[in-house]
Batch of 2 targets.
Target 1
Amino acid sequence: MCPLMAQSQVGGLRGLSRIMRAAAALGPKRHWQCPGFLCIVALTATARMAALKFSRDLISFLVLLALGSGAVYATQGAQGVETGVMNGLRLLVEILPIILAAVVIGGYFQALVPRERVAAMLGDGSGLKGLAIATAAGALTPGGPFASFPLVVALFEAGAGYGAAVAYLTAWTGISLQRAIVWEWPLLGPEITLVRNLVSIPLPIIAGLIARALAKRFLEDKPPDLEKLKRNRRAP
Amino acid sequence: MTTGLSLIVAWGIALALIAVAQWKRPQAHREALKKGIGMAATLITRIPVIVIAVSLLVMLVPQQFIAEKLGAAAGFEGILYGSLLGGFLPGGPSVAFPVVVVLMQSGAQGGPLIALITAWSVLAMHRMLFFEIPFMGVRFAVLRVVSSLILPPIAGVLAGFILH
C-alpha cells in the first residue's frame, strides 16, 4: 500500500503543477484576477487529488479556497477577490521567514530532546502542574502573534499533550506583557489593561482542562495528524 | 506589524538550538535536517492554499454590523457581541486596538470591550488558523478553538464584576 500511495501522491503533485501551468498559459496576467479561474483551479485540483487519495487536509483547504473565492465574488465582485488574494499573498511573504524558523526549531527540538521527557512534563497525564508550566511559559514568551508558534509545534511533536499545547497558546495570546505596554496601556488606559490581564490569568488553565477532556473523549491518544505527517515523510 | 520581534525571537531560538546541537551532539544535525525537511514538505503545499483561502473568507464577515450592535448593547448581551466581533477581527494589534478605541469612545462598556480583546487574542480565527491548521492539523485547531470559546465571556463577566 505504501509504494502505491507514494506514487499517487507524486501523481497528484504533477497533476496540480500541470493544471497550474496550463492555466497560467491561458493568457496575460489579468487572468489571475478572475475569480472563476481561481474557482476552477481549486475545484479541478480538488477533484484530481480526491481521486488520488491526496492528503485530506489539503483537499479541505482547496475546497475552502474554492468556496471563499466564489462567495467573495458573489458578494463583492472581482475587485473583492483580488483584494483578498493580494492580502493573502502579502501575509504569505511576511510569514515565510517564520515558517523557515519553525522548520529549523522543529527539526532540532525533535533531534535533541527525548520524547519521554517532554511527555512526562507536558503530556496529557502531567496533571495541573503540566498546565501551569505551559501557562507560565506562554505568558513569558515575548513577540507578536507568530513568535512562539514554532516552539509549540516543536513541543507538540516532541510529546507534549493537547492540554499543555492549548494552555500555552492561550496564555501566550491572552496574557502578553509586551502588548499590554505597547498597545493596551496607552490606548485604553490603566484600568482596562489591569483588569483584562488579571481576569486572563485563569483562562489558559480552563482552556487546557477543557482541551484535555475533549481530547480524551473524542481523539485517540496519539495525535493523528502527527501520524499522518510521519507517513507523508516516509512516502517520497 | 509585530512580526519583526517575532522573527527575532523565533530565529533566536532556532540558532540557540543549532548551537546546543553543535556543542553537545553534532550528529543531531543530520537527524534534525531529515525531520525538518519532512516538516517543510508537508507545510509547503498547505500554507499557501490556506492563507489565501482564509484571506478571502475573512472578507465575508460583516464586521461593521457586529460593531454597531456592540456599541449599543450592554450587559451580557454586549459581552456576547464583543466575543463574536473579537473572534473575527482580522489583523494584528495595530488593526484591533484602534477598533477597540473607537468602540470605547462610542460608549461600549468595560465588560464587552475586555471580552472583545480576549476573543481577539484567544480565538483569533483568521490569524491563528494560518499557522494552526497547516502546522498542527485541523483536529488540533478545532479542539483549541472549541476549548477557548467559553473564555471571552468568562473574561467579560469577571471584568464586569471588578469594574462595577
Target 2
Amino acid sequence: MSSGNKHYWKALEEKEGGPEFLKDAARDLVERGPRHFGRRDFLKAAGFTVGTAFATGCRRAPLQKAIPLLSQPEEIVPGRCLFYASTCGGCSAGCGLLAKVRDGRPIKLEGNPEHPFSNGGLCATGQASILGLYDSQRLQHPLKQGNKISRDAADREILARLASIRSQHGAVRFLTGTITSPSVLAALEEVLKSLPDARHVVYDPVSNSALLDAYAQTHGTRLLPRFHFESAGVIASFDADFLGTWISPVEYTAAYRAGRNLEERRVSYHVQFEPRMSVTGTKADQRFAVAPGDFGVLLTHLTGLVAKRAGISLNWAEPDASPVPMSFLEGLAEQLWHARGRSLVLCGSQAIEEQVLANYLNHLLGSYGTTIDLERPSLQMQGNDQDLESLVRELHAGKVHALFVYGVNPAFDLPGGDELRGVLSRVPLLVSFSQRMDETAFLAGYVLPEPHFLESWNDTEAVNGVASISQPTVHPFGETRSLLETLSAWNGKSKSGYELLRESWRARVFPRQKKESNFDAFWDRSVHDGYTEVEAAVFKTKPFDLRAVQPILRSSAALDKFALVLYPTVSMLDGRNAYNPWLHELPDPISKVTWDNYASLSPAAAKKLGVNNGDVIHLDASRTGLRTLELPAYIQPGQHDRVVGVALGYGSKLSARFAKVGPQWIDALLSVGDNGLVGQNVASYLELKNGVLHYSSTQVTLSRTGKQRELACTQIHNTLTVPEHLRPGGSGARPIVQETTLAAFLKDPQSGVEDDEEKEDLWPTDHPYTGPRWGMVIDLNACTGCSSCVIACQIENNIPVVGRDEVRRNREMHWMRIDRYYSESDHGQVDVAHQPLMCQQCENAPCETVCPVLATVHSEDGLNQQVYNRCVGTRYCANNCPYKGRRFNWFNYSHDDQLQNLVLNPDVTVRSRGVMEKCTFCVQRIQEAKIEAKRRGEKVVDGAAQTACQQSCPAHAIYFGDLNDPSSRVSKMMQNPRRYRVLEELNVRPAVGYLTVVRNRDQESKEEQHG
Amino acid sequence: MADAVLTLRPPLIEGDKSIAQVTHDVCAPMEARPSRLWWLALAASSSLLLLGVLAIGYQVAVGVGTWGLNRTIGWAFDITNFVFWIGIGHAGTLISAILFLFRQRWRTSVNRAAEAMTIFAVMCAGIFPIIHTGRPWFAYWLFPYPNTRGSLWVNFRSPLVWDCFAISTYFTVSAMFWFIGLLPDLATIRDRATAKWRRTLAGILSLGWNGSYRAWQRYEVVYLMLAGLGTPLVISVHTIVSWDFATSVLPGWHATLFPPYFVAGAIFSGMAMVLTLMIIARKLMRLEDYITLRHIDRMAKLVILTSCIVGLSYATEFFIALYSGSSYEQFVFLNRALGPMFWAYWTMVSCNLLIPQLLWFRRIRAYVPAVFVISIFVNIGMWFERFVIIVTSLSRDFLPSNWFHYAPTRIEIATLLGSFGLFFTLFLLFCRFVPVIAVAEVKGVLKYGRPHAEAIHE
C-alpha cells in the first residue's frame, strides 16, 4: 500500500478541475441509477460455503483514486466546512437554517441561532429535508406525458396553449400551497394579470382555513396572527398541536420553552383539550380528552364563565353538558381571567364557529396586542378552503382549461379519491411543478420539476417583517427551474433566479428598511445572515365584531359511532415527506410506531372491541362512495373513548420505492403493506364542505377482521411500573424519569429527585480527567419529544436506515432515542414523559470491562470510545449496558445508492456489518473544536463543540460542554437541584444528567401519581 | 486374602469375561461391517450436520441479523448452545479425571466414551463463540498473540477472554488425556488388524506402543498427571463460563452463586448425556456386560445429587433476590416464573428438579428405559435453564422502554440442530472407529468381585 503522499486523479476532467466536473459526476450518478452489477455482486450470487464466506469477509475495499482541486477556489479548504445561511423549505413555516457545506455539497442542516423566530432550532422535517436533495428519484428534466422534453419546447408549448386559452377566455387556475415568497407572488400576480380568467387558489393540505376565516368574521381581515407563547402565563389550547405540527412548531416550541423557566420561577400554565394524544398534549399541565363534536359546547361553556368574570351577560341558552367537569372549567376561567393580558386561547379546529368563540375569549382576555399579534401577523398558512371548494366544483364541471399545481399534491391530499383524480386528468392543460413523480405529476400533461430548496435561489417572508433568503449550496443536479424563474420566463424575462431575486428585493424589500442605503451591501448582509428585518406590511383590522359570536349549544359528538380524527404526524406531515426513509423510520413521538399508519383507539375502546395492538380493524364510514378502510389498531392511552385516530400523509406513491429498503435475507419482510406502499391514504375520509376542509367530521363504525399486521414499534412497554402480577412488594414506578409538581418544586427544588449519594470510588486514579471532561444535561421539562434530535443524530453520524422489518425486530439503529412513558395522575388523566436517551458515557462503564478485544475504551476527556475497526461483535457490551444505548450492525446496510451517499458525513466512519456503534457525543465535532482552538492557541470555548442533537433541539433542552469548566452552561446545569442521573445506584457514573419534569400543578405529594 | 477383599462387592464387569473376550467384545464390532442401524443413524446425524453447516454458512455470509437477536437481547440461542455443550463436556472429565483420583474403578467402562463425548461437546461448543461474533473472521483477536499493532493486547478483565483460555485449555487437556488413554487400545487394534490401512493407521496413532513395563509405567504416571490437570478443569471451566454472566451488572446474571450453580448444572447435564449415550450404546453394541445396571445406577445417583444441588441453587437465587431488597432483582425472578416466558421457566424446573426426583427410587434406577427418558428430560431442562437465564434476564432489564421479546429464526434452530448433528456424527464415527470401552483399563478391573481370579486369564 502506498503512503498518503501521492495524488491520484479519477478522470482527466477531474484533473482539469472545476465545478463542472462535480455537476457532471452528479448527473452521471443519477443517470446510472443507484445500482450496477459489479464484481462483488457476482461473488455474492455465485453461492457460498463457510470457506467462501470467510474469504469474502476478507475482501479489501477497492482502490480509489482521487485528487484535490488543482486550482483551489477561494475559501475552500478540503476537509473543512463552510456554513451558508438559508431558509428551510421543509414546510411553510420558514425557519432559518445554516447549511454545512463540505467539498462542494451540503451534508447537514442546522438551525440558524440568530434567526428571530426559529432561534436555532430545526424540526425533524427540516433536518431530514437534505435527503431530498440527494434523491435519485427526483425528476431530472421536464416531462411531457411522461417523456422527456426540452425546457424550451415545454415553455413554447405551454405558452402557446395559454395563448389559445387566453383568446378563448378560458379559466386558468394556479393551485398552490402557501407561498411565502414575495418575489414568487409578484411574478405570479403578473402572470395572472395577463390572463382574463385566472385565479390563484391556495390551500394547505393540513388546513387552518377556518382560523383565518374566523378572523375575517371577527376582525374584518382574513389573517393568521402571530402567537407569542413566551409572553403567555396561561395557555388554553383546544386541539391545537402547536408543539408538534401546528403552523410553526419550531417557533412555538422555542417561545413556549422560554415561558417555562423554572430557574427564574416563571412558569406558564398550559391546559390542552384534544381528542387524541398529541405532542402538545404530552407537555400540558392538565389535559382532557374531548371528542371533536364536543369542542363547540366546551368553548361555549368556557366563554360563558370568562364573560361572567368580565361582567358581560351573554344571555345564551343553556348548552349541552360540558365534556369537562365544570369545576375544572371554573378554575381555568379563573386562571385565564386572573392572567388576562397574559392569557392565550388557541383553537385548532376547522369549525369557524368554534374559532370565533376562541377569538372572543382572547378578546375578553385582552390577548390581542399582547400574546396575539395582529399587526405583524404570520404568513405561514394562507390556505383558503372556500377558494379550494369552488375550484373543485369548477373542476367537476369541467370549467377549468388550465391548472398549474405547485407545492401541493391534490390527487393525494384531497378527498374525492379516484373521482377527483379522474377529473384532474381531464383538465386540458395540467402542469405540475412537483420535484418527484407524485400522484398529481403522474396525471399531469407537463411536469416542470422545481429544484430542491438547497439548490436554488428563493426568498421567504413567513412572518410579516422578517424577509429571509434561501440560497443554493450546490449546483442543481438536474434540469430543474424554480417557480420564480419559470414564471418570469413566461412573463418574458428569462433571467436566472439570482438576478430575479435581486431585482425583486431591490424593488420590494430594500425600500422597507432604513438601516442600509446601499443595496449591494444590504443584499450581501441579508444573504450572509439569511434574513433581514424590515418594516412590517400594514394589516388593517377592524374592532372586534361581537355579532360574529354565536354559542354552540348542541354537541355533535357521536354516541354510538366513532369520530374519525385525521391528523398529520411529525414525520410525514401531509405526505410531503413520503419519499424520505429517515422520516419513515423516525418513531412517532407518541406511539413509537414506524413505517406505517394505524388506527389508534383508547384502551377502553380497544378492550370493548376486543382488539390488541396489530389487530387489523375495519373502519366503515356511513358515507356512500367511500372505500372501506382496514388498518392495524394501536392502543393509545389518553385518547377519547369514542375517537379513532388515523394519520394523514401515508399511502403515497412516493413510498413505493421502499419495498426492499432494508437488508434482504430469507426471512425478511417488505417495508410496504399489501398495497405496495407504506401505510394507507385516508384523504378520502376528509370532507371539503361549506368552504372548509374537515378533518374530524366523518363517523365510522369499527369491527374486527381477524387479520394481523404487527406494527414496527420501537417501544412496546410504556410505563415505568412493571405489570401488576410481577410487581415485587412495595415497589412503585422505577425512578428512570423523575418528576414533581410545581407546588412541590417551589417548596423544595430538589423535590422529585430520587438520587443516591455518590459512592466512594474504588478506582480514584483510573480517570483523573485533568483536561476537559465532556458531559451533557437534558432538561426533561423542556423536551417535547419532537424527535428532531433523533434525525439530526442520524444524519450527522451516518446511521443507516434498516427498514420496517428490522424495526419490528427491535433492531433500529438510532443512537439517540426518545423513551416515552405514561403514568396516571389524579382524575384518571394520562401523563406522558419524554426521555431522550443515548450512550451515557459512563465513567465506570460496564461495557468497557467486558469487551474482550478492547474495542470500547475510555478517553481521557470522559468519552466512552467505540473503536469500530477493532470490534469483533460479541455484543457483550450491549448486554452489559443497563441503558441499552448500544446499537449493533446486524447486516451490511445497503449503501448502493451513490447519490444518496453524498449526504454521508465524511468525518464519521460508515460501519460495516458485525460492529457495535453508539453515541459518541459527536466526537468528530469535539475534535474539530479542539483542533480549531489549538490552531488559534486558545482553549475550547463553551459552545464551540455542540453535539448534533443539542444543536437541532428547538426547545434547547440539551446542554453539552466541559464539566471541568465551572463557567460552562452544562456545569451549572449539573449543579441544578433538579438534576438526577438514571440508574445512579449502579455506580456507573454516567456523564449525562437529567432535570426532573415539573408539572404546573398544585398537588405537592408525588404519591398522587402512579403509573 | 486377596480373594476375600475382591469378593466384598459384586463384579464390575459381568458375564465372567476373560481378557481375550474383553478384547474381542470391544474390538470385533469395529472390524466387522457397520450395521444398518449405524448407517441410518449416521445418515440422520449427517443431514442435521449439513443443515447446520448451511445455516452457519448463510449466517456468516449475510450477518448475525439472520438470527432472532435484537438490541435488547444480544445473546440467546448462540450462548445458550455454547454453555449447554460446554456443560455437557464436564461429566466426561469428571468420570475420567475426578473418579480416577477417587479410585472409582467402575468408571473404566464408561470413561472412554464419556471423554470422547466431552471432546465432541467442546468442539460443538467452540463453534458458537466464533460464529456468534459479528465478524467471525476476526475472532482470533480474542487471543493474545504477538502482533505488530503496538502490540495490541486483549482485555484481560473480560470474561470472554478468560473463556478463550478456559475452553482452549479444556479442549487441549481433554484431547490429550483421551488420546493418551487410547494408546494401549490403539496398540491392541494395531495388533489385531488384518487390513493394511488399519494396521498402518493404528500403528502411527499408537505411537509405537510396545506394552513394555516401562511403557506402562510412564503411561500410568502421565495418566495420573493428566487426571490431576483435568480435575480442576471440571470446576474451573464452567466457573469461568458462568462468569460471563456473573460479572455483568444485569439483574438475574449478577449473582455470586453462579460458579457452583453452573458447575453443578454442567455435571448434571453431562451425566444425563452420558446416560443417554451409554444406554443406547450398550444395547446396540451389546456391551451390557461392561456397562452394567450398576454403572447406570451410580451415574443416576450422580444425576440425582446434582439435580438437588441445582434445585437448591434455584431456591437460593430466589431467596437472595428477596433478601437483597433490590426491586430489579426481585422483579427478574418473578418475571421468570410468571412473566411471558413462564413456560420456559417451568419447563426448566420440571425437567431439572421434579422429574429427576424419580431417580430416588431404586426400581426406577434399575429400569433402564425410565432412566433413558429421564436423562433426555434433564438435557431439555438444562438447555432451557441457560435459555431462561440468558433471555429472560436480557429481555426485561432496568429500563422498561428496552423490554422486548425474543423468538428464534429458522437459521438459529437449524444451527442448534446442526450442533446436535455434529455431536452425533462424531460420536457415531467414534463408535465405529475407536474402542468404545477402555479395553486396557477394563482388563485392569476385570478381577474385582470374582473369586476365581485365575480363570480370567485366557
